[in-house]
Amino acid sequence: MVHGVAGAAPGELLGDPRTVRVTGDSTAAVFRRTEDADAEAHPERYAGRPVPEAYCWSRLTSGNGARALWLLLLPFMVANLAHWARPATPAADPAPRAVRTYGVLVRILALSLTVLLIAAACEVALDLLAWQCAGSGTCAGSRFRSWLGFLAPGGGWWAQPGRRLALGALVPAALTGLLWYLSNRTWSAYESQPPPAGAADPDTASDPVPALGRPGFWYGRRLVARLRAAHTAAGLLTVAVAVSVPTARHDRRAGAPLLAALGTLTQVLLAAGVVAVASVVCRRGRTEARPDHRLDRAAVTLLPGAALALLAAVLVHACWSRPDWTATGRLPGDLTFGVLMLGQGLCVLALAAVARYLHRAAPDPAAALRGLGGPAVAMLGCALGGVMSGGVSQRVADWLDGGATPGMRGAALPGPPVLLSWQAAVLPPLLLVLALLAAWFAVRGARARGRLAAAVAAEYPRETPDLDRSRRIAGARTAAALTDSAPWFVAAVSGITLVLGAGALAGAWFSGKVPGEAARGTLPMLEAAARAAQDAGSWLIGLGIAAFVAWGRRAYRDPAARRTIGILWDVGTFWPRAAHPFAPPCYAERAVPDLTWRMAGWTGRTGGRLVISGHSQGSVLAAAAVWQLPPPARRRVALLTYGSPLARLYGRWFPAYFGPGPLTALHREVDCWRNLWRATDPIGGPALPGAGQDVDRGPLADPLAYGRSARHPLPAPILGHGDYQADPAFAAERDALLARLDAAARADLPSQRLPVSKEWAGPAGPAAPADPPGTAG
Hints:
- Helices cover 57% and strands 5% of the residues.
- By secondary structure, it is mostly helical.
- The chain has a 4-stranded parallel beta sheet, with helices on both faces.
- Helix 3 (74-84) packs antiparallel against helix 12 and helix 6 (161-168) runs antiparallel to helix 10.
- The longest helix is centred in the first third of the chain and has 38 residues, at 96-133.
- The protein starts with 9 loop residues before the first helix and ends in a 26-residue tail after the last helix.
């Protein structure tokens, strides 16, 4: 069996505190009860009964304190999800050009987020600290910032602006190096898990092969390595541009022909580097038909190395003595952030057009937002990146400016680009709209609960109606049903964010001032509203950043909090890093091969049959692993899922991979599939609603008993998403699957001779057992 989010101990899964690891390591492993450790050596003991196994994978997402740092990668993870939220394509006309266009747009959007993060680091380290504060005697001379004194005018060798910029550039360059290191380290541990030989052989698998059944789906080493090199180079080039632009501008104005010529040469090389990065990112993406063992050595090695060498040349050029150079105003960052924001908005709109085209070619009524789920998720990723990067800049500027407001009259420092202040100002109205939406959903839920409560008691015959009990049960069902409204909530957030972001960009570009200054002299109410929105937005971002840091710090120290964050990664990092290489690593690229190797190896060695059961996210891993099995092994497997999001969440948001077509093919190719679900479960639901009772059994009664009785003397809890094993239907379905496989195994023996390994040898020598032990793993 495979556990779901938040994990479970082997003893809890197997119902026995005495367990032993039979294969795997400290990160992910398969466990058995101690008494079952050598089951294959004594098949006579297990005639007619299974050998239970548990696959524990929770440490893949919440293993050590360093995972708390993954919170910083949240925008990258969301952007990567947008790649997989592509609409399905018809089997007769897969529209490869549109699919490639969709992938290219998402990869460009992901690249813009990397540039945005590094640009924000440049804004803090180069503009606010090295340029504005260090260039101001008032700011650098403060007793709270005396550590900047050596950069202040008259402070020594580092006091010249170019040298200050070169020193400050080490911060965003180090951040880029940290992102490269984390991605490379996890790439070696996660993406380097090859599938078993012959797994999902395209020559023998069904036609067309579902995407998750292709042998190269969980082995995308080449693309991640190539994208990592491109994003690393993009980060280093962003730092180089941030230093080169003001330096070259000063040299041209100062009339220094040699330095100006060197500056022009470096900018030409920077432009060439940008073209090289764009070409690598826009090249064809994943190769899923075959495991991709080959790496692009030139791109992986030369591109980051050349970008690093170019950055070093720019820093040396900036450190050249320029005694007449003084720092005034702010560095040219308004245009950079504005172009990034405009490009992201246009990219999201283009992505929406392609997604709509794909959805029309293969309409899926269950797909989220009629095929626009991917663009909506991409918009959320851009919004998260903007809030996080702009929020840090705003907080640092407020800290440096003391009691003044950056960008307003009387402020000691010019502050960050005005666009960041406009972004902060649109946050309060966005939160107000979200609060209204939440209130509307709450009112609608309350009304639905009232309607359901009247019918709940009728579902429990011979029970005395209890209005409070009925309301609690109806409330659990109503809350669980809100999951089905999530796509429209996401659509509202994304649409409002797009509109308000466009307004912020227009206000910043046309006024050139922060909102409070732009509204000065207008209507008093408008002026007060603009100032209040600007201040409130800045404080809200500050509180959000503080809560974010506190949550990460707690997760670093507290394993329980780290497991809570791990739940977020369990859902968000199931997919390979096809768009953003700096996203948290895909644990499924380790877990799915683990399960596939175990099932393929066991069935091939023993000739037995097995039931693989999965709860919640574990059911998704189980289905993905079954898809990867060779067809002969797949036909010897039964699938038992419960609390499964396969259709309700994954099929809705990722229709190209978990839509009705792939799930129907999975049902057709395994020996049998049963799925249990409850109406009170906010995550699980029917797996194949159109298949009737062939797959789905539910909704199960929850709670198991309405009131007190001799059998249930205490009130039965509302189980919701957990404790499916406590329901009698679970044991009944599991036993039925095991009996089905037992009968099939007995029917196999007279017609074929199964190869028997030495572990199966009995006292009289090697002989095929009458009933190979199964496994409910």
